[in-house]
Amino acid sequence: MTILVFAGSLRKESLNKKFAREAARVLKTKGHAVEVIDLRDYAMPVFDQDIQDGEGFSTSVTALGEKVAKATALVIATPEYNGSIPGVLKNVIDWLSRLNPMPLADKHLLLLGASPGALGAVRGLWHTRVPFEATGVHVFPTMMGLSAAGSAFAEDGTLKEERPAKQLDGLLDQFTKHVG
Amino acid sequence: MTILVFAGSLRKESLNKKFAREAARVLKTKGHAVEVIDLRDYAMPVFDQDIQDGEGFSTSVTALGEKVAKATALVIATPEYNGSIPGVLKNVIDWLSRLNPMPLADKHLLLLGASPGALGAVRGLWHTRVPFEATGVHVFPTMMGLSAAGSAFAEDGTLKEERPAKQLDGLLDQFTKHVG
Amino acid sequence: MTILVFAGSLRKESLNKKFAREAARVLKTKGHAVEVIDLRDYAMPVFDQDIQDGEGFSTSVTALGEKVAKATALVIATPEYNGSIPGVLKNVIDWLSRLNPMPLADKHLLLLGASPGALGAVRGLWHTRVPFEATGVHVFPTMMGLSAAGSAFAEDGTLKEERPAKQLDGLLDQFTKHVG
Amino acid sequence: MTILVFAGSLRKESLNKKFAREAARVLKTKGHAVEVIDLRDYAMPVFDQDIQDGEGFSTSVTALGEKVAKATALVIATPEYNGSIPGVLKNVIDWLSRLNPMPLADKHLLLLGASPGALGAVRGLWHTRVPFEATGVHVFPTMMGLSAAGSAFAEDGTLKEERPAKQLDGLLDQFTKHVG
User: Fold this and answer.
1) N or C: which end of chain B has fewer CB within 10 A?
2) Residues 6+ apart with CB under 8 A from C53
């Protein structure tokens, strides 16, 4: 079982990149094969059918599609933009969904979300489920929103507080047990 | 009352561009001031906080923001990509929501959706409501999904069949009466 | 303008009944005509088309329908049950939607939600919007989730903390200004 | 693997009861152990915490909870009321979610929906996913909406048209393969 982990955000200091890396670290300690990627390394234009018809898929789209295709499961930590899925993540889905074979089909996905505020990106996670489920992804019912994420991570990237650390650990166990 | 009309799609032959133009035409016959724009003329990068912090807003973002700010109401015809809001439209919301003052706040919005299939983009319209409502937009409760849109438009851009034509006409009346 | 206020919960000590009553009190201090009702006084069976066809509408359904019909706007404070609309509130919508004329059409609605936990019923509020919007209700885009509601109210029913009290006050002003 | 099948509707001539029975028949021909129940036989009051605290769970709630607990998977055919989950089905979830152990946790669920109209209850199915997922149910990503259901079934209960019959057959294969 290979697990592909990334964040639904581009900025370098993204809290969700930190959350994704920490989830990956915990998964590795449990003996899973994990690959962490950064969507910044897979820059793609805003989806436009005319681009697909004219130029075909960019190498970033096909390369990301191959990463997804090889993975058994995905863990995505995503911010909430305006109570909903970030455009950057939706754009990735729009492009990947055009590939044939469609790499997202039948994948297992665990959604995480970090936010500096009190709600922990929870509204956005529910909105983010929809396009993945529409492409045939098995989105794990339980998700984790990390609130006050601006101060949640220690220097070494681990979660400072025991409660969210245990929640993440338990959730990753549940998820990998379900997928396995 | 000025009504800004556009499609949530980039491609030139977009069915939703046709639907948007037809809605604009009908609104004009009713005496409303209407402006139709094409998101292709407002190309913007995928949202990235680092771009906003480093380079600020592109002229496309500020120009679109001004168009929205001047309008009393918006009519957006949007396709459904993977049962949900297109990345291109979500990306526009992500950028506009960062402007200050935020041009979407308190605007009235009517959502239309055209699709070649039988469901008329209806699933996607419900998903599309969420980010707009999260930014304070009054999304009109009734929406219109146009099914079999590939053959719905005559050469002159009008709707061939009486039933959808009447539905659009009545919905635009309801919407403008509510906004006015 | 008459505003009908109630909670989407039946139990006597419901936090959302407290929240509804407090919203009503604030609205009265602003000079609005307000009526607070309790769904416990409008007991209705679980919706079943056979009951409607056989026995017609119960007096609770027609009486509640009349209350809604007379109101200009509704304020509903609703708990979140399983991340979503409570069955009791959905059941009320199902019954009211069968009345002719349909009393919910074109009403304005403000949704509030109280919960003992940290998320303040916010997930449930977004799920609750959908059936109201499907019946033609103008659901106000901004909503208010009150977290830690078990300790939020003073003996006299007012909100203890200044921050949520101000939030409620400002939101009610925005809502009534929009409706008026 | 035992599959529990029922409809999210009470009325005797419910199209969704027909759809549920047909799904059950097809599952049996594939060799699965199937039980079909009718929510009419599990009448329960509208959920009220005071009832739970005072009288405890009715026998209908505990009996339905046991049926769910014994099943490996559920297939529910549900109508769409006002673009959303029927109150009767939400009420069942609200009651079952209070049982301890909670019988819905980790169950697999396939959602079907029949409607007399063109949209096949599809909007409602997406809304119905949410409370199930919030209780830890693995809702199968693909769902099936049956449009024009008033004329879809033959005298013997089978689907008249080849296309929906094949769609149902294939979807049930996918679902049981995934669960198995």
Assistant:
1) C
2) none
In terms of Cα–Cα distance, which of C37, C125, C41, C47 is closest to C91? C47
* Helical residues (DSSP H) of chain A, grouped into ranges: 15-29, 49-55, 59-70, 87-96, 122-134, 162-179
Contacts of A159 (CB under 8 A, 6+ apart): A22, A146, A152, A153, A165, A168
Instruction: Name, in order, each residue with C-beta under 8 angstroms of A120's C-beta and a sequence gap of 6 or more.
Output: A113, A114, A144, A145, A146, A147, A149, C119
D145: DSSP letter: E
Q: Is the pTM of this model over 0.90?
A: yes
Distance CA B164, CA B150 (A): 14
Structure tokens, C150? 């078990």
DSSP A147: S
CA nearest neighbour of D79 among D48, D108, D50, D116: D116
Nearest to D126 among A130, A136, A178 (CB): A130
Cα gap A61→A99, rounded to integer Å: 9
Each residue's pLDDT tens digit, C19-54? 999 999 999 999 999 999 999 999 999 999 999 999
Please say whether the beta carbons of D149 and D125 come within 8 A.
no
Say which residue the tokens 């009320």 belong to.
Answer: C92
A149: tokens are 């994420």
Whether the bond between A101 and the residue before it is cis, its omega within 30 degrees of 0, is: yes
Q: Does B69 touch chain D (CB under 8 A)?
A: no
Q: Which chains pack against B, by 3+ Cβ pairs within 8 A?
A: A, C, D
Q: pLDDT digit string (tens) for A74-114?
A: 999 999 999 999 999 999 999 999 999 999 999 999 999 99
> Residues C64, C65, C66, C71: what is their CA dihedral angle, to the nearest 10 degrees?
90
CA D60 to chain centre: 17
Q: Which residue, among D43, D75, C178, D121, has the nearest Cα to B138 in the 3D structure? A: C178
Distance in angstroms (rounded) separating the CA atoms of residues B148 and A179: 39
Quick: pLDDT tens for D32-50. 999 999 999 999 999 999 9
Rounded CA separation B24/B35 (Å): 8
Assigned token pair, B145: 């999904």
Peptide bond into A164 cis (omega under 30): no
Nearest to C44 by CA among C52, C36, C35: C52
- Beta strand pairing call for A73-77 and A108-114: parallel
| Contact by Cβ (8 Å): D87, C91 | yes
Distance CA C4, CA C110 (A): 10
Q: Which chains touch D (3 or more CB pairs under 8 A)?
A: A, B, C
ipTM confidence score: 0.96
Cross-chain Cβ contact D84/C48 below 8 Å? no
Q: Do B147 and D118 touch (CB under 8 A)?
A: yes
The yes-or-no verdict on residue B120 having pLDDT over 90 is: no
> In angstroms, what separates the C-alpha of A156 from chain D's closest C-alpha?
32
Q: What are phi and psi of D3, to 5 degrees?
A: -115, 125
Contact (Cβ atoms closer than 8 angstroms) between residue A146 and residue A118: no
Chain D hits for B118, Cβ within 8 Å? 118, 147
Q: Would you say C92 and C44 are in contact if contact means Cβ atoms under 8 Å apart?
A: yes
Contact B48, A10 (CB under 8 A): yes
Q: Which residues pair with A110 in a beta bridge?
A: A75
Nearest residue, CB atoms, C141 vs list B126, B133, B142: B133
Kindly list the residues from chain C whose CB atom is less than 8 angstroms away from the CB atom of residue A123. Answer: 122-123, 126
